[in-house]
Every structure is written in C-alpha cells, then in structure tokens.
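Meet my pick.
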Amino acid sequence: MSGGQGGVASRAADARPATGGPGPRPFGAIVRATTRALLGRRRTILVLLFLLVPILLSLLARAMPGTEAREEIAIGLLDNLVVRVVLPLVSLLIGTAVLGAEVDDGTIVFLLVNPVPRWEIVAAKLLVAEVVTLALLVPVTALSGAILVAGLPGVDAGIATGFTVGVAVGAAVYVAIFVAMSVVTSRALVLGLGYVLIWEGFLASLFAGTRNLSVREYTLSIAQAVSGVDITAGQGIAPAVAVVMSVVVFVGAVVVAIRRLGSFSVTGGG
C-alpha cells in the first residue's frame, strides 16, 4: 500500500465508529477520531501562531506612553482585529476542517455506511469544532483584553469581559455556519473566506436591516450589553435581537448540515 493510500486508510479506520460489543459508543468514537485528526492538521498549528498576533499587539499598545484614549484603543483593537479578523478566520479554519476533509477525500463513506444517525455525526463533529474553537479564542480574547485595560485609570475593565463573552457567542455561531458550509460545498474554505471578507467585512454594515444578519454585529451587541460600554457608537443592533438571531442562525446551520449529510449516498456524493 502506498503512503497516500495508507494515510486515507488510517483516517478511514479512525472514522469507523464501533457498532457492536462492549466498545465505545459511536458518538464518543467519532469525537475522539475527529479530535485527533483536527489537532494533527497543519492548519491548527497555523491557527495557534495566528493567535499570537492579538496578544503581541495588545502588549505593544499597553507599552505605548501616555494614557489618553486608552479605552478607545482597547475597543478599536478588540473590534478591528479580534472580532473582524481573528474570530471569523479561526472559526472558518476549524469549522471547515472537521467534516469538510472527510467529504473531500471520500472517507465520510465509512461513517455513512454504519448505522449511525446523521444528526449524531453532525453533533459529534460540531462539538469538537466548537470546543476547540472556544478553547483557542476565549483565552486569547480575555488575555488581550486584560492586557489592554487592566489596572488603567479611567478605563472600564468590563470591556475585556464583554468582548470575551461576545466572541464566545460569535464563535459558536460562526463554527456552525462553516460546518454546514463544508457539507454543502467542497469549496467551503474559499466560499467562507468570501463570506467573511465581503458580507461580514463590508455589506452587512451598510444598512440597519443587513446588520440583523451579521454575526459580527451579534458579537459586538452582546459585548456592549455585557460590558456596559458604548462599543458600537450607537450603530449596533439590540442585544435581544442579537441573542435571538444567534440562536436562529445556529439552529438553522445545524439543520442544514444534518439534512445535507442525510442526502449523501454511500459513494460520498449527494
């Protein structure tokens, strides 16, 4: 067997859930196999390196002389770097990896031929993606925020807490979207990047109505509600709308992923 065939065979063996005897339940087997595969991917290492950027920039901002406009600097860095760039890109890289790679190389067939409900496969994959993404983004946001605002006179320390909570909610929604996207299309990474840059980065903020369909706006609205600081300069959506829409988009993405995976044939197509 060649090296490439061996690699696919190894992933396929990991993907097969236990279906008989006293072995592990399928859900747990899928979670463990997905976690091993995800943490072993090169993109995860790149994500870890990428996450050093907001911490380093926060340290540089903190080291700047003077205390004027410290609150504005903190909000600007956490919004423009963490919320606009780091949050969606990390969610994209993780969310499209947990199912997309298996759909692309055909090893998803080894899950589909087993008597495992499609919702259970999606739930296991989504769980891994959510936990890994949150484990990466939440500490980085909290640490960056703490570096920027902790102990500074005249700066509301709640900014760090607000952005951390907002990023956690935003990450959960983004990951669900990208997991669903990876089942719908084999070009999920490219499509997701276009979504982040064009929709979230430009179009969604143009009009009041489109803000209701922006995960970034949900993130900022929740961050503002938790922190009690005017983060959006009066241009954000209501916190209640942000929470409700976050739930709606999350559930909608999960339903799309389950239905799409259910339409796949055992040959890996759909």
